[in-house]
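Our collaborator T.R. sent over the components below with a one-line note: 'Predict the complex.' Nothing else. No constraints on interfaces, no templates requested, no preferences about which chain binds where. So this is a plain run: every listed entity goes in together, and whatever single assembly comes back becomes the starting point for the next discussion.
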Amino acid sequence: DSGVTQTPKHLITATGQRVTLRCSPRSGDLSVYWYQQSLDQGLQFLIQYYNGEERAKGNILERFSAQQFPDLHSELNLSSLELGDSALYFCASSVGGGQVDTNTEAFFGQGTRLTVV
Amino acid sequence: QKEVEQDPGPLSVPEGAIVSLNCTYSNSAFQYFMWYRQYSRKGPELLMYTYSSGNKEDGRFTAQVDKSSKYISLFIRDSQPSDSATYLCAMTRPGGYQKVTFGTGTKLQVIP
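Returned assembly:
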């Protein structure tokens, strides 16, 4: 168990709908990252929050947004859902800013499988 | 062309075999190289981390980086059924995890 908790594990929703994915980072971790994983694209970085503030943005669509709350849990909001948004969404957390060059590991949750029908 | 290419497999081997998993990349700025293991219905977990060229060994696992050929490998010796998983390579320039580029993963099945 990585210590990162994601809910729900599975979500099935219709096109055009809005959903919220939730992530609780490991105790003490200040950074939260959101990734999308699809079969053909692999893991794609969406957005990072550090101690409540947006730190970095990746390939995140305008229909998607995220926030990190004072208790450090994070939510990823996906709206106007399309069939192509069906994927696994992972949250990861790390101590501090998570610098790879200092070998600071990012720990991944089990993911939320989103199916848009 | 993707920055990181990884054969999706699946790769099936008998228990006890030596497994070789590989990735090629095009960005010569990559300096940090990682291998993640992802079991079915789980998130990726870091297996090996290497900096620049060379070999790194951890138990039955050896990570190899050849920057001149832009080629990295993960070798698994004495493979076990518990090694059955998808293996993702990942690499980056110096910086945070937002800069990491992941391969699409190779699915490995070790048959008892």
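Summary for T.R.: Chain A has a mean pLDDT of 94.
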